[in-house]
Amino acid sequence: MQQKKTMPEGPYQPKETEQSIASYWLDNNLFKAPDNPEGPVFSMVMPPPNITSSLHLGHALDLTLPDIIARYKRIKGFSVCWFPGTDQAGIATHNVVERALEKEGLNREDLGREAFIEKVWEWKESCGNRIIEQIHLLGASADWSRLRFTKDPAYEKAIRHAFVRYYQDGLIYKGHRIVQYCPRCKTALSDIEVDFVEENNFLYYIHYPIENTDEFVTVATTRPETMLGDSAVAVNPSDERYQKWLGKKLLLPLTQRLIPLIADDHVEKDFGTGALKITPAHDSADYLIGQRHQLPEISVIDEGRTMNENAGPYQGLSIAKAREAILLDLEKQGLLIKKEPYTHSVGHCSRCHKTVEPVISEQWFLKTHHIAQNALQRVEAGDTRFIPDRWLKVYRDWMENINDWCISRQIWWGVQIPVWYCSCGEIYVAEEVPSSPCQKCGSNQWQQDEDVLDTWFGSALWPFAVMSWPDNSSDLSKYYPSSLLVTGFDIIFFWVARMLFAGLYFTGQVPFKDVYFHGLIRDSQGRKMSKSLNNGIDPAELIEKYGADALRFTLASLSTVHGQDICVDPVKIASSRNFINKIWNASRFALDKIDSIQESDSSKLPNHWDLWIQSRWNHLFAQLNEHFENFRFNEACNVIYSFFWDDFCDWYIEASKFCLNPKLLQDILRKTLIMMHPIIPFVTESLWAFFDDSDQSIMKAVLPEKYQLNPQESTDNQNEIDFIQRLVKSVRQLKSEFNLASPEGINIYVKSSCKNKAKLIQTFAKDIQLLAKVEQLSLCESVPPNAVSSIVYSDLEIWMPLPGLVDIEKDILLKQKKIDKLQKEIEKIASKISNQNFIQHAPKHLLEEIQVQDQELKAQLAHLQQRIDDLAQMKA
User: Fold this and answer.
1) From CA 632, how far away is CA 630, in angstroms rounded?
2) In this structure, are residues 627 and 635 in contact, taking their beta carbons and an 8 Å threshold?
3) pLDDT tens readout for residues 809-827
4) CA-closest candidate to residue 74, choices 42, 49, 114
5) Cα–Cα distance between 794 and 807 in angstroms, integer?
6) pLDDT tens digits for 65-116?
7) Bridging pattern class, strands 427-429 and 385-387
8) Across the strands, what pairs with 88?
9) At how many degrees (to 10) do helices 755-763 and 765-772 cross?
10) Which of 543, 588, 677, 780 could pair with 684 in a Cys bridge, judged by C-beta atoms 3.0 to 4.6 Å apart?
11) pTM surpassing 0.85?
């Protein structure tokens, strides 16, 4: 990048600047990890975004936070390697392409498997590349020479290798088990791909006649259409209501089948009637009861959509139509007793959001209990650290109760299961297509399993498969285990837990040393962003409007080490943009001042403001290092903002207008740009060219050194400047009360009973006068006439005479209007506080906030009333 000597006029233009900087970084391969790293190594893997659409704000957060750490580690001297990539997103991508086909009046069966997969690849080439372009917009400094996609040939090889190894070790099996089935996606799902949503429904009460009696057992159910597949009715063994009938046979309504009344501890006595219909083929809990009691599994719904031959006269009906017909027939026979409104959780596909159906199906499963326990023990031993650590309990609860993982999917886009079948029944499991005839019958007619693997099966290998595993690559030896993973807590089960047990199983090592879980992105009202609410925000649009640095600074400033959810409001991003512009303008001012001073003038000795800013910069340096190391992103932003806006701009630059040390001014700016660079890389890179003579990127800069200061001298200086600042702020506030901006005609009198303070005022009178923007500052022993006062310290008061400055009568009227407004606000609060219903139901924190607000408003009221009294005396 060519160094420029003169900064452009006007405000910072992020759009043009950031595009240029992004191209500069990429064109010069500045993110590439060194081939032969020396010194400490820091590595990460990027949570691979799905190729299904453009990035959302969750992705922006996933990319910004690790990029901050990556850039920080670089300036600390680490060899950083950040592995980027994208994920095939099996079902999600499948759905997107299917919907595109539907618009053309086609479906995947019309095309056939090969043609459909070609369509998906075409779509991936157009949309997948857009994802990478958007990642570049954010400035994510990943090593793009190591870009991976979970359907690259090498990555597919790793997935097949993992399947074969699991299978050979007896951990993968094929069997008939109940699974969650999505009728829309036409595939089985794993348990954690099902979202449970509260729905308003009905609870139906149905009589089940007891064999050879006139008595009934009444069952309450939300799904009467599945009763045709009932294998039993179960009650709690301690429920006295049903003791006399245990072991009896019940006549299943609408059929001629007899089913037993059994006892099982799973049944809740307080639900419905306490009698539960058991349908092992259509309910996960019923399936487990059926396994315990060896009940038959009777499926009456095919693929979660239509009633099958076991449904008798209802065969061919949809679920909704079958429910309607069954209820009508039950009512005709006098077996439907009543129905009542009922709210319960219903499973929905996490991809298409349609209701799922539990079905018995032949699927491939991975046994997870043993490998999950190993992964749990290693995390609890501290081999991997969770930040914040409260997520360890969530992880533990899931790992201790983990079920076998259904890993097969009935879709076409994905890695096809590496299992081949011969017509004679022989099975061949290998990484590659069989190259020889069947050993059992000699046939060459192998047929590969039609199913593909769950996309999370491949994603679980991500931390080491991106490093060319199972090959013994140099990347694997240098960068595995990775140093840090940054991700949302919502995929602990989907991804983090699975990476942990897969990493340990295949490599013997945990895949990452630290995991930082950030919160979820929410809108300004605290709602989770979703398409249904139409409240999602496209980060590319925010970058177009405010700039990437502004978005990054906002996201980081809202990210706490505790991982709370993040409410994003464009107003906050606009505020961050203003801060970026402040950095730009302050740098231009400093550059102009530096260029206007002759070299011979730049060797002056440090003054009291120079010592103070060095001390403040040392404080910034210490805090930033601590915050970056401990993932306190919001606190890092706070100290950067406070130092640059307050210490550097409001005080040091203002003071430099009358006591300039250009050499130090430049040095402070250079060091500050380096320390801010991890969070706001674009503007700092752009400014670096004006303040550094090396003609190199700021990414090549090293961590600055602290200023060597005498501790006692620094403390004394800090106390002196604190005194000056407090006095200046008091004068400014007094001026502001009367809307006085210009220093002309403003005389400030300072009265103090403390000799040390009076001496400090004499020493720094010029500083105070110039910074407070007053015409004259004087010590006095008596109160000047017609003046208003403000207490700075208990032993120091300032006075400002008003004649010639203020229209007293007009000012009294203005203050009276403010008093009227304050009194109305105080009355509103009093009304709330006197409302007992509000007091009893309002949250504690809200009551405390109201009380604080009430006290502040009353203090303002008292101050204004005193001011009016003072002014009235002057008028008299």
Assistant:
1) 6
2) yes
3) 898 999 899 999 999 999 9
4) 42
5) 30
6) 999 999 999 999 999 999 999 998 888 888 888 888 888 888 888 899 999 9
7) unpaired
8) none
9) 70
10) 677
11) yes
